[in-house]
Every structure is written in C-alpha cells, then in structure tokens.
Amino acid sequence: MNSKTHLGHQAKKRFGQNFLNNEMVIESIVDAINPEPTDNLVEIGPGLGALTEPVIERAGHLSVVELDRDLAHRLRHHPFLAPKLTIYEEDALKFDFSSLITDDKPLRIFGNLPYNISTPLIFHLLTFKDKVKDMHFMLQKEVVERMASGENSKSFGRLSIMTQYQCQVIPVMEIGPEHFTPAPKVDSAIVRLIPHETIKNPVKDLKVLNTVCLTAFNQRRKTIRNSFKKLIPLDGLQELGIDASLRPENLSVDDFITLANYVSDNPIESK
C-alpha cells in the first residue's frame, strides 16, 4: 500500500496532510480535550475523522472546517458521523470563527493543524480569542516549544510573545512521527491555549506589538540598540530602563509590551 494512503485517502502534500493512526495516542488527545455534550466544539481539518469520531462519541455534535473537497464529501456521506456534524468547506485561514457562536457559548477549538500554515492560522485564531474558551492543537514540536519558550532561549521569538501575551500556553504531550500516515519528518506535540480573561499589562495596539517583534527578531543576533534604530531612539531605550546592549531574546514579554507602548505613544514620522 502507498505509504501516503490511509483509509483509502491519498494524503495531499499541498494541504500538509498527515493522518493519525494510533488508537492509544488518539484517546490521550481526546482525554486532553475532554469534550462535553454542552460544549461548542469546532475541529479544524478533521481529515479522516481520527479525532472527530471519539470527540462526537463524548460530545454528540461538532462543527468542522475542512478545505479538502474530497474529505468534506466523505464526512457529508459518513453513515453515522454526518448527522452529528455541521461541515464548513472553507479555508480556516479566512474563516470567521465568530459566526459559530450560538447561545453565547464560547468556542472550544481543536485540530491536527497542517504544519505548513500553523503559525498564520494560530495568529488568525487569536483574533477571535474573546470568543474562545480554549484551543488544543497538534503542531510540529518545534512550534510548540517556540510558543511556550521564555526569554534567554534560542526558541524565544515573535510567536512566543504574541501567543503568551494573549493566552496561557500549556504543552500537553509529544507524539512521534510513527503515529502518522504518512510519517512526517518531525516530532509533533499537543498544546493547550487558554485565552487570558484579563490582561494585566495591556498593550495599546496589538499591531504595534507585532511590528516590534518582527523588527526585533528579523535579525535576532543584533543588539536592541541596532534592531530598534528606526523605531526607538537610544534615549528612549534608556528612559524605559532597557539595556540597549542586550539581544531581543534576552527581553521578557513585559519588556516587549513596554517597547510597543512607547512606539504607540512616540511614533516616528516617516520622512
């Protein structure tokens, strides 16, 4: 049998498809999600239903967002899953997740995310964080490490700051490539994201925080002084009490919030 075929479906490279095939691993993931019948559950990329089936067994109903026409068709005609599913054949990167709010029930989102779009997809999902109770995702292990990383680490960067500012990041479990068809070339991990109910140290403009992070980590070996030359003058850094000789990875999430708020208050006018 073709190593990319699982349950009769040929994995499509353009969608970054890798299908879970180990029942014990699947059960552990569903236990981590802990779906309840009263939950407003949404699965991104249900694929061949490895997580869909056991989640529906516990919850009774599920909304799914699936871009692959063949897989969406398969789910629509599934003998016992179809009546319990609301299927949106759309691109999750463009999908309005707030449209799934019913009876003011916050969303519980989960999925085995395609690794090729996982970071932009998480940034998109975070725009709906006020309507989300929690999210459980299978991602490349390296991406989960970056999300959960603290300062003074090579894996600390824009993804760490933007995610931790908006959510509690909890790595749940690691999963080896042998539990997928086709086997990916990387290890995977499950992460739990719980949006903060209130943000203690709010940023004035999230877009500015993102710009500050992009500027800082674009050339991460540069010092703060050199990274921020075009955004913050040296006396501005001194005023904030930030050591200009440090590298971006040495600053905390709170330091980045401080820098972003300074930039919001002191925009450098383009010449």
Characterize the structure shown.
- The protein is built from ten helices and eleven strands.
- The chain has helices at residues 23-33, 52-59, 69-76, 118-126, 141-148, 158-166, 206-218, 224-227, 234-240, 253-265; strands spanning 5-6, 9-10, 19-20, 40-44, 62-65, 85-88, 107-112, 132-140, 167-175, 180-181, 188-195.
- Mean pLDDT is 88; it is low at 1-17.
- Helix 2 links the parallel strand 4 and strand 5 (62-65).
- The protein has two domains: 5-195, Rossmann fold, CATH 3.40.50; 206-265, Helicase, Ruva Protein, domain 3.
- The chain has a seven-stranded mixed β-sheet with strand order 6-5-4-7-8-11-9. A two-stranded antiparallel ribbon has the order 1-2. The chain has a two-stranded antiparallel sheet with strand order 3-10.
- It has 271 residues and is α/β, with parallel strands linked by helices.
- The protein is elongated, with a radius of gyration of 21 Å.
Sum up the structure in keywords.
Rossmann fold, Helicase, Ruva Protein, domain 3, 2 domains, 33% helix, disordered N terminus
Write the layout of secondary structure elements.
Blueprint: E1 5-6, E2 9-10, E3 19-20, H1 23-33, E4 40-44, H2 52-59, E5 62-65, H3 69-76, E6 85-88, E7 107-112, H4 118-126, E8 132-140, H5 141-148, H6 158-166, E9 167-175, E10 180-181, E11 188-195, H7 206-218, H8 224-227, H9 234-240, H10 253-265
Parallel strand pairs: 4-5, 4-7, 5-6, 7-8
Antiparallel strand pairs: 1-2, 3-10, 8-11, 9-11
